[in-house]
Amino acid sequence: MNAIVLDGGLATHLETLGCDLSDDLWSARLLTDDPGVIRQAHLDYFRAGADVATTASYQASVPGFVRHGLTSEGARDLIRLSVTLAVQARDEAGHGLVAASVGPYGAYLANGAEYTGDYDLDEDGLTEWHRERFEILADAGADLLACETIPSHAEARALARLLRETPSVRAWVTFSCRDGEHVSDGTPFEECAAVFADLPQVVAVGVNCTAPRFIPELIKHGASIVYPNSGETWDAANRRWLGLADPVEFGRAAAGWAAHGARYVGGCCRTTPAHIREIRSHLA
């Protein structure tokens, strides 16, 4: 099982480091407030065994930063900084790759639309909305782009258009999925994955921020990169989270995903360096 180990939930770990991420910029706010803690979080994941750091640009966008009072140039500088911080952590760790996160339009909306695909923009509008940040990140020094938590066929087509315009830029593409066969807007996963079939720079297509119980079926449908959330649900009666919160159990499951064909495995929301350490241990 020679799978590449990705990192875990960046925001989750930042919260354990004492950060308040309660506004709509989420972890991207720390690019201006406390960039050092972002670098530390990346370094913690590398030291836990991750081969890849995914940047804090998921919720970062020029219009999003401008909405919070920054200038357009200041916003662009912060987006570049997200890559610089991950590169610094990679260099200190002495190994690994940096994937620049290209979050979905829904992350900017901050209304949960990245899990529904319920957007007010069509494919053309999504292409233009993504273009500026896409171009900044493509030129910022990352090893590849992580186009992630994509909920819809239309947004997949928009990102494919931008990738065709930049054939030298490598990327992976991952979707948020509602079950073992469909992305969040109801389109079959295989249909969305096919959008990237003619793009050799796309190193993998798969899923993230999706419940772990759906991962084995999605691998059967062609997902080669998988980094689900912890799958937890809130048990109000007993006041506890239920799911794969236990790092050992998550690591064991990840080894199974790799055995069934996933080439990249990691975690998303509510996973931590402890989960990544267990993935590395179980793969070894």
UniProtKB/TrEMBL annotation:
Cofactor, free-text remark: Binds 1 zinc ion per subunit.
Cofactor(s) named in the record: Zn(2+)
Keyword Coiled coil belongs to the record: no
Binding site for Zn(2+): C209, C268, C269
Domain of life the protein comes from: Bacteria
A molecular-function term among this protein's GO annotations: S-adenosylmethionine-homocysteine S-methyltransferase activity
InterPro entries (alphabetical): BHMT-like, HCY_dom, HCY_dom_sf, Hcy_S-methyltransferase
GO biological process, one term: methionine biosynthetic process
Hcy-binding domain boundaries: 1-283
Pfam families to which the protein is assigned, alphabetical: S-methyl_trans
Key word Metal-binding present: yes
SUPFAM superfamilies: Homocysteine S-methyltransferase (SSF82282)
Keywords assigned by UniProt, alphabetized: Metal-binding, Methyltransferase, Transferase, Zinc
PANTHER family, alphabetized: HOMOCYSTEINE S-METHYLTRANSFERASE-LIKE ISOFORM 1, ZGC:172121
Name under which the protein is recorded: S-methylmethionine:homocysteine methyltransferase
Gene for this chain: mmuM
